[in-house]
Write a structure and sequence with these properties.
The complex is a heterodimer of chains A (116) and B (117).
Chain A lengths: L2 E3 L4 E5 L4 E3 L2 E3 L5 E8 L6 E7 L7 E2 L2 E6 L4 E6 L8 E9 L7 E3 L3 E6 L1
Chain B lengths: L3 E4 L2 E4 L5 E7 L5 E8 L3 E10 L2 E4 L6 E3 L9 E3 L8 E8 L12 E2 L3 E5 L1
Parallel strand pairs in B: 2-11
Antiparallel strand pairs in B: 1-3, 3-8, 4-5, 4-9, 5-6, 7-8, 9-10, 9-11
The chains are: A mainly beta (116), B mainly beta (117).
């Protein structure tokens, strides 16, 4: 069974600094997708960034980028120029599939605090 | 554009009572799922469905039933509530098959906080 691990229950970062959140996963599949979701105190789940396993290039979305290491089964999220609005729970997620999508498995989450 | 709608947003039950959490989506998504969120445990998959008439168990299915009679609706039933089912529940949907505009992203409802006394 696929599993997703986030080894940092809590992290903090100074405003305007850079922080990296870790995620590792376990799978025997070769085709899958990885996601980072953000959950602010409002409880809303927001997609931050998505990575296809068959693409070697790391995904980026403005201040958010990932370091995808397929062989190591590692998928870390880097937040640059941290802002107060980045304070939230961050969940790493895995989804098997290439031509169709399977169920989505989430990690336990990392709570990120941003210090003014 | 409603997206994924969950009701109720809050509910208090007594042990042994039954209830149904409703989930509806208007995006014509084939895939729908239910998660529960507990502190330190992330989102754990309860049940999911890849289309009308098809359901499957997730990581924590015990104590919950689902059915999928239409593409739009995916209700979650608690037949005999227990205090261990106190949690925040999320319904989420997405496309099942790859398409030019499909990203595999899950679209979430706002969550339902359930307390079982």
């Amino acid at each position: 069974a696929q599993t997703v691990t986030q080894s940092q229950p809590e992290m903090s970062v100074q405003e305007a600094e850079t922080v990296t959140l870790s995620c590792t996963y376990d799978t025997s599949e070769s085709d899958y997708y990885l996601f980072w979701y953000k959950q602010p105190p409002s409880r809303q789940m927001i997609l931050v960034i998505r990575q296809e396993a068959y693409k070697q290039q790391n995904a980026t979305e403005n201040r958010f980028s990932v370091n995808f290491q397929k062989a190591a089964k590692s998928f870390s999220l880097k937040i640059s120029d941290s802002q107060l609005g980045d304070a939230a729970m961050y969940f790493c997620a895995y989804r098997r599939g290439r031509t169709s999508y399977d169920k989505v498995i989430f990690g336990p989450g990392t709570s990120l605090s941003v210090i003014p | 554009n409603a997206g994924v709608t969950q009701t109720p947003k809050f509910q208090v039950l007594k042990t042994g009572q039954s209830m149904t959490l409703q989930c509806a989506q208007d995006m014509n998504h084939e895939y729908m799922s239910w998660y529960r969120q507990d502190p330190g445990m992330g989102l754990r998959l309860i049940h999911y469905s890849v289309g009308a008439g098809i359901t499957d168990q997730g990581e924590v299915p015990n104590g919950y039933n689902v059915s999928r009679s239409t593409t739009e609706d995916f209700p979650l039933r608690l037949l005999s509530a227990a205090p261990s089912q106190t949690s925040v529940y999320f319904c989420a949907s997405s496309y099942s098959m790859l398409g030019t505009e499909n990203t595999g992203e899950l679209f979430f409802g706002e969550g339902s906080r359930l307390t079982v006394l």
